[in-house]
Design brief:
The structure holds 2 protein chains of 2 kinds.
Chain A lengths: L1 E11 L5 E11 L3 E5 L6 H8 L7 E6 L2 E2 L4 H7 E4 L11 H11 L4 H14 L15 H13 L5 E5 L7 H16 L3 E5 L3 H7 L2 E6 L2 E7 H5 L4 E8 L12 E7 L2 E7 L4 H10 L4 E6 L3 H14 L1 H5 L1
Parallel strand pairs in A: 3-8, 3-9, 6-7, 7-8
Antiparallel strand pairs in A: 1-2, 1-4, 4-5, 9-10, 11-13, 11-14, 12-13
Helix pairs in contact in A: 3-4, 3-5
Chain B lengths: L2 H22 L1 H4 L1 H18 L11 H31 L3 H5 L5 H28 L9 H25 L5 H15 L14 H5 L3 H14 L6 H25 L6
The chains are: A alpha/beta, B mainly alpha.
Chain lengths: ~300, ~260
C-alpha cells in the first residue's frame, strides 16, 4: 500500500491562479522521497492540500489507503507536517508546544511528556524546554518543528524546506536524524532548494513544474541521465596553455585551476591518465555543480523552452 | 485508541491551553473587569444611585448588580475567544490544530469553554466586588448559573465568528465597540425598560441582551421585565444558530484555509 497516492489533483486559487493541474503521484511506504521544483511550481500547495491546510479543487488524496474526503481524521492521524514558515505561539515554552501538539492527536499528557522529552533530547532542545519560542534561534525553531511533527509518531512525515536558513552543521545533524527516522520505518517526503540535500537523503524524486509532475524517478537513474559533468581541478603547477585531450573540454579558471567537462562516454581514470601523460599534476578535484542541480536546471529549462530542449 | 477518548484529550488540551493563556496575563484579562465594575458600583450605585428611587421594588444599587455581573461576563467571554482565535490565525499556529485529527466541533467546544471559563472567573471576581457594596441574596442558584453559563457560551460563539472573519486586529474590536457595548448598555443593565416610552420600549425588546440580563436578575433577585421562558428560548435559539454558523465556517475553512 502506498504511503501517498494523488490522483488528478488540481487546485485553482480564487483569482484564477491554477497552482496544480492534475497531479498524479505515488510515494511508496518507507521511501525517502524528494519533491523538487522551482519557486511557484506548486510544491507547497500540494503539501498543504495533503495536510488539510488548503482545500483542493478536485482530485483524490489517499494516505496509507485512507481517502482524505471520506476519512480525514485517519489521514491526519498518519501525517506529520513540518511547514516552511514558522507557525508557533511565540509566547509558549518549547515543551508546552510539543506536548500540546501531542494532545491534539489524543496522546494523553503523561505519555506526551515522555515522547516530548525523547524527541527534544534527540534534537538537542531538551535544555531549552522552558524557553519561550520567541527566544529561540532560527535553527532551534526548525528543529522544534520536527519534534512537534513527530510527537504523535506519524507514519508519513512531510517536510517543506526543513533546513532553509540553517547553518551547515545543524543541517547535517538534521539529515542524520531524518535518516534514522526513515530507517526506523517512517516514510519521508521532503521539499528542498538544496539539491545536495535531496541527492544525499532521498531514494526517489519527483520534479514539479508549472503545477504538473515533469519527472518522477529513482535518483540514481535520474543522475545517470546526465550527459556531462563538470569538475574543477586544482593543479600543482601553472598551466599556461589549455591541454587538448580528446573527449575532455578544458577551460581556465586561473593559472592553477582548470574546469573540465567530462562526457558520459569517458571516465575520471581516463582523464587522470591523459593529464599525467601531459605532465599536469592535480592536487584536488570537486564537482563544479551538484549533479541533481544540473539535471534539475536542464529539465526546468527544457520545460520552459520545449522546442530548444528537443533540438 | 478509542475515538472518544482521543476527542476528550484534544478538548482538554485546548481548554487547558486557553485557561493558561488568560490566567498568565490576569492583569490584562481579569483585573480590569473587577476595577471597572467597582467604579460602576461606586459612582452609579453608591454616589448617584442613592439619589435615584427604587427600581422594580429594589434599591438602585441592588438593581444594577445582575446587569453589571452579566456585562462583565459577556465582554470577557467574547474578548477571550475573539483575541485567542484571531491570534492563532494571525501567527498561523491554528495550523497545529488544522493538521491534527481534532474534529471541528471539538475545536469549537474547546475555544468556547475557554471563553466560558474566563466569563466564570471574571463573574466571580465581579460578584466579590459587588459584595463589598451590597448583600447578594440569590433567589435561585440553578437559574442564575444556567443563565450565566448560557450567556457566556453565546458570546463566546459570537467572538469565535468575529475572529473567523477578522483580517486585522482592528476587526476584532469593531463588533465589541459598535455592537456589543451599545446592546449591553441598552439591555436593561441600568434601568427597567418599563421606564421607557414607546417606541423605545418595543425596540428594546429586540435586544437579545435584555433577555439575558432580566433572566439573570430573576435568578438573583426574583424580578424580571420579561417572562423567563422567553428569555431561555431566545438564548438557546441564538446559541443554536451561532454554533451552526461557527461549524459551517470551520468546515468551509473560511478565514483559515485558501
Amino acid at each position: 500500500m502506498p504511503a501517498l497516492a494523488l490522483s488528478q489533483l488540481t487546485k485553482t486559487y480564487r483569482g484564477g491562479l491554477q497552482a496544480l493541474k492534475g497531479v498524479d503521484l505515488t510515494v511508496e511506504a518507507g521511501d525517502f522521497f524528494a519533491l523538487l521544483g522551482p519557486n511557484g511550481a506548486g510544491k507547497s500547495t500540494l503539501i498543504s492540500i495533503v495536510a488539510s491546510l488548503v482545500n483542493k479543487t478536485s482530485g483524490r488524496v489517499e494516505v496509507f489507503g485512507h481517502d482524505l474526503d471520506l476519512d480525514p481524521e485517519a489521514v491526519k492521524g498518519c501525517l506529520g507536517l513540518v511547514p516552511q514558515e514558522f507557525n508557533f505561539n511565540l509566547f509558549l515554552p518549547v515543551l508546552e508546544v510539543v506536548v500540546n501538539q501531542a494532545g491534539y492527536y489524543g496522546v494523553p499528557r503523561r505519555e506526551a511528556l515522555v515522547r516530548a522529552e525523547r524527541y527534544l533530547r534527540q534534537l538537542d532542545l531538551w535544555d531549552r524546554r522552558d524557553t519561550e519560542m520567541r527566544k529561540l534561534s532560527g535553527g532551534m525553531k526548525r528543529r522544534l518543528m520536527i519534534a512537534r511533527a513527530l510527537v504523535h509518531e506519524p507514519r508519513l512525515l512531510i517536510l517543506d524546506e526543513p533546513t532553509a536558513g540553517v547553518d551547515i552543521e545543524i543541517r547535517r545533524s538534521m539529515w542524520s536524524f531524518l535518516k534514522d527516522i526513515n530507517r526506523a520505518g517512517t516514510t519521508i517526503i521532503l521539499t528542498t532548494h538544496y539539491l545536495e540535500e535531496a541527492e544525499s537523503l532521498c531514494r526517489n524524486v519527483a520534479i514539479i513544474n508549472h503545477g504538473q509532475i515533469a519527472e518522477r524517478a529513482d535518483i540514481g537513474d535520474l543522475l545517470r541521465r546526465l550527459r556531462t559533468e563538470t569538475f574543477v581541478l586544482n593543479l600543482k603547477g601553472r598551466v599556461a596553455d589549455l591541454p587538448e585531450l580528446g573527449g575532455f573540454v578544458f577551460q581556465h579558471v586561473d593559472d592553477c585551476t582548470l574546469e573540465v567537462e567530462v562526457s558520459r562516454e569517458h571516465t575520471i581514470n581516463g582523464l587522470f591518465a591523459a593529464l599525467s601523460r601531459n605532465g599536469i599534476e592535480v592536487i584536488s578535484l570537486r564537482n563544479k555543480q551538484n549533479r541533481l542541480e544540473r539535471l534539475f536546471l536542464e529539465m526546468v529549462d527544457e520545460a520552459a523552452t520545449p522546442g530548444e530542449g528537443q533540438a | 485508541m478509542n475515538r472518544w477518548h482521543r476527542y476528550w484529550v484534544a478538548y482538554n488540551t485546548i481548554l487547558v491551553k486557553e485557561v493558561l493563556r488568560f490566567t498568565r496575563i490576569w492583569v490584562q484579562t481579569i483585573l480590569p473587569a473587577a476595577i471597572s465594575t467597582a467604579l460602576y458600583f461606586l459612582i452609579f450605585g453608591k454616589l448617584i444611585g442613592e439619589r435615584i428611587g427604587p427600581m422594580q421594588g429594589l434599591g438602585y444599587l441592588d438593581f444594577i448588580v445582575p446587569g453589571l455581573v452579566l456585562m462583565a461576563v459577556i465582554t470577557n467571554a467574547y474578548a477571550n475567544v475573539v483575541s485567542s482565535f484571531y491570534s492563532s490565525k494571525f501567527s498561523r499556529y491554528i495550523e497545529e490544530l488544522l493538521v491534527s485529527p481534532t474534529p471541528n466541533w471539538v475545536i469549537l467546544a474547546g475555544y468556547v469553554t475557554g471563553g466560558l471559563a474566563r466569563g466564570l472567573i471574571v463573574g466571580i471576581a465581579v460578584s466579590l466586588v459587588a459584595l463589598a457594596f451590597t448583600d447578594i441574596e440569590v433567589h435561585s442558584f440553578g437559574i442564575s448559573l444556567l443563565v450565566f453559563a448560557l450567556t457566556a457560551i453565546l458570546f463566546s460563539l459570537g467572538g469565535f465568528i468575529n475572529a473567523v472573519y477578522a483580517n486585522s486586529f482592528d476587526d476584532i474590536s469593531i463588533i465589541p465597540t459598535f455592537v456589543l457595548t451599545p446592546l449591553t448598555y441598552l439591555g436593561g443593565v441600568f434601568y427597567s425598560i418599563d421606564l421607557l416610552p414607546e417606541p423605545w420600549h418595543s425596540l428594546s425588546l429586540a435586544n437579545p441582551v435584555l433577555y439575558m440580563v432580566n433572566a439573570f436578575r430573576y435568578g438573583l433577585q426574583g424580578v424580571s421585565d420579561i417572562p423567563l421562558w422567553i428569555a431561555f428560548a431566545i438564548i438557546l435559539g441564538f446559541i443554536a444558530v451561532l454554533a451552526a454558523l461557527s461549524l459551517h465556517l470551520l468546515g468551509r475553512g473560511v478565514g483559515i484555509k485558501t
